[in-house]
Task: inverse folding
């Protein structure tokens, strides 16, 4: 580990993030501009994220499959809005096996087109519906300004693609997934996301309606962390996905698509991280607890290691790392695991063995307040409990931070001050794409999503009456 | 399910395979020539395969990571043999974001070059070694003649890439992985593979030594089902992967790479399948047991479904599917699940409920011999046992088939007869790449791998004395 201190969040949040991702060994820059290498520590986190989502998808009847990486270029043009949205971002294969291809192939930026093509082949009757397929994979979008995990040319994600007999079922699916995303964010990632519908300007290219989960980062900027799209019959019509209904009438399907990507790792880093490094939620942390054995003399070693092994053995369901590296000081190890965001640390030295105690340090509460001595006895119970306490505390802390930085405003002057200096603005809003664009131009803030609202109010910008509230914020 | 009978294995093995892959819904042809869609049933099998490998890799100290899909074209040329091996198979991205790229990017056919580049950045000292990283992902090779699972433009695999301080450690790793591959094949896939070293002509482009596991298919052809390469210092020198040893001397690392792909699904299909369809080994089968409830009248339904639910509840660790589809006959269902290779089937009807029995049918023993009535009582014990019996029987059957089709021969005439009509030839062999090429030209048989041997003998082809035995066979 690099001994130099991290740039602090207040000095430069963006630089703090970049340094932290590299120094915690979550990811590294690849030799191709804008691409990343997800290193083993980052990938272990992603595997835990995948598992938590995959269980939720399977519990709600979804199955996984794999569709091709390469898509004929002509497929991309079949849905009008879709091609406009994605054409500028495509990576195109023009040579294969040394020969110029007759038709260029696009490296998938998303898979609606190729999956739609297969669905039109597989779906014949209402008995074949619903089709509830998810895919874990990689996609490529030719982004100009990139940042590790947040926006890279290639990224990893899951993309669900479902087909239904009715508009109602498709809408139900879209919301079901939005709720799964929000539930994951809150209960696994300890991120108190706001979930809601996107505006027309911000929706997915080709969708009827897009919903998203929006997370507030430590610098108060918003990060869109997952999207669920009701595609209506747009793609079914473009790709001829039809079925015979119970009355033997040919109908177009209603489809949905939805995705969460490795971007969520960026959300976890920027929601919970501090100037010492990552702070990972126990439910997802690759290492939930690190044990640092401390001894000077060889004769102390045996007793210390016996205690260490007893703790490891007593906690078969906790992901534990014993840091028995030689040649580095305990202080170095502490810093290292703090940088890597391990939720709980135990030190065990000869005195602890003698006193029958463990020295604990919680990552979520830095400094002295997070440290305690606990009796060795009963660790099998209180350590898993403490991990849950940390998880809950991280969510509570992030929720307070979020709520402290959302401001109800009713005029443009206050709005500007909020989105430029303080956080998110929650406002009455009369839908107007032109006004939305103007606000973006002036303040760089975008409409993140619709908020829950009751009654009516006056749009802070147009002065028109409306029954809708929305969140505006600067975003990644 | 298509009601038409499969083409039989004896009629046309290749056609039997193609039909079966489609009709069992394991995979489908993608709209791009040579690409496949792995459908949910096939992907569920792949997930079980991945899990079985991943556990073995992690238990031996390996970790997962993700390296980029796109590789600068110049990287491919750094290792001389590597570029010669892969240049004809590359898919090349020349446009990104609408612009012609300064340097074309290759879609990875394998990742030695990009991973080597990162290792040269990460590895500094002997303390950083060994590096034991695996990656699950997709790769693209521009193949001309393709076949679902066996050879497709894009396929899914794991590729391990390790770096070591000494030649001995690298060799140890290479063999450790070969043994993991063979262990998986035998104990999970019930495929009695032969494991051994490849000849110089057949080794991986850039390797010092390649080892493989070779499986015998139902038509007696060989299928290379996994490879483990000792790369020596070839890639370390080409990509400058160096470390300071304990004496502060700069040394090149020794590296390995190894992979198993979705091809192993083809091996499972062609090792165990029969004229009724797939026969999946219980350890990997997505559905280990299907229950078909049988009743005519509504008043029979409740008692039958109670028994069905009791069986499901009593077997929480068995992957069970209850086929309660309306509007299709039990006979149709039986054929369907036979086609899909589910290891065990239970029928439960009103009479079974009355008698307290279950009607069982084993997929590995077609026809009457595989059917039995068992008391309902004790199913929690005997059904898991029966799944293990099926697993063991499949391995025994495949082992007998393999052994019945390997022939020791000592002259070219017999050799030709064996490899063209009977199976694999096991022969004394004096290494000679020219003779190997001649044999391939005349008989289409290739040297699959070295066999274990004792003492010395006379090479069947050159007549020279040798201490080596090898397997020759026609292969996929």
Result:
């Amino acid at each position: 580990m690099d001994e130099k201190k991290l740039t602090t969040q207040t000095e430069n949040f963006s630089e703090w993030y970049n340094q932290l991702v590299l120094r915690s060994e979550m990811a590294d820059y690849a030799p191709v501009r804008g691409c990343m290498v997800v290193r083993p520590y980052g990938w272990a986190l992603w595997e835990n994220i995948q598992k938590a989502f995959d269980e939720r998808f399977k519990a709600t009847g979804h199955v996984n499959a794999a569709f091709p990486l390469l898509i004929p270029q002509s497929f991309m043009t079949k849905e009008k809005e879709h091609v406009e949205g994605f054409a500028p971002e495509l990576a195109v294969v023009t040579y294969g096996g040394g020969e110029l291809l007759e038709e260029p192939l696009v490296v998938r930026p998303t898979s609606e087109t190729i999956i739609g093509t297969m669905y039109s082949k597989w779906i014949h009757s209402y008995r074949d519906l619903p089709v509830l397929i998810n895919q874990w994979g990689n996609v490529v979008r030719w982004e100009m300004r990139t940042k590790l995990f947040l926006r890279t040319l290639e990224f990893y994600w899951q993309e669900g693609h479902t087909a239904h007999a009715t508009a109602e079922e498709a809408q139900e699916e879209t919301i079901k997934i939005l709720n799964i995303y929000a539930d994951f964010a809150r209960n696994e990632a300890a991120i108190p996301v706001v979930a809601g519908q996107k505006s027309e300007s911000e929706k997915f290219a080709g969708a009827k309606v897009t919903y998203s989960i929006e997370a507030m980062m430590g610098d108060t900027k918003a990060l869109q962390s997952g999207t669920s799209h009701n595609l209506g019959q747009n793609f079914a019509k473009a790709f001829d996905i039809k079925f015979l209904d119970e009355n033997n009438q040919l109908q177009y399907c209603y489809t949905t698509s939805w995705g969460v990507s490795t971007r969520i790792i960026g959300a976890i880093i920027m929601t919970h991280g501090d100037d010492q490094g990552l702070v990972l939620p126990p439910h997802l942390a690759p290492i939930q607890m690190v044990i640092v054995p401390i001894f000077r003399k060889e004769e102390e070693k045996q007793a210390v290691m016996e205690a260490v092994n007893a703790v490891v053995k007593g906690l078969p369901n906790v992901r534990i790392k014993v840091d028995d590296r030689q040649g580095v000081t305990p202080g170095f190890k502490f810093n290292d695991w703090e940088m890597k965001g391990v939720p709980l640390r135990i030190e065990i030295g000869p005195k602890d063995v003698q006193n029958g105690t463990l020295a604990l340090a919680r990552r979520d509460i830095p400094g002295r307040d997070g440290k305690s001595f606990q009796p060795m006895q009963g660790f099998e119970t209180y350590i898993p409990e403490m991990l849950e306490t940390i998880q809950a505390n991280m969510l509570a802390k992030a929720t307070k931070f979020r709520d402290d930085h959302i401001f109800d405003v009713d005029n443009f002057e206050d709005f500007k001050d909020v989105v430029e200096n303080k956080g998110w603005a929650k406002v009455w809003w009369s839908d107007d794409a032109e006004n939305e664009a103007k606000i973006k131009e002036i303040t760089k803030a975008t409409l993140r999503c619709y908020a829950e609202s009751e009654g009516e109010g006056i749009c802070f910008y147009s002065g028109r009456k409306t029954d809708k509230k929305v969140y505006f914020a600067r975003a990644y």
Observations:
- Chain A has three domains: 13-272, 289-386, 406-473.
- Chain A touches chain B through 55 residues (CB under 8 Å).
- The longest strand of chain A covers residues 154-164.
- The domain at 406-473 of chain A is CATH 3.30.110.30 (Translation Initiation Factor IF3).
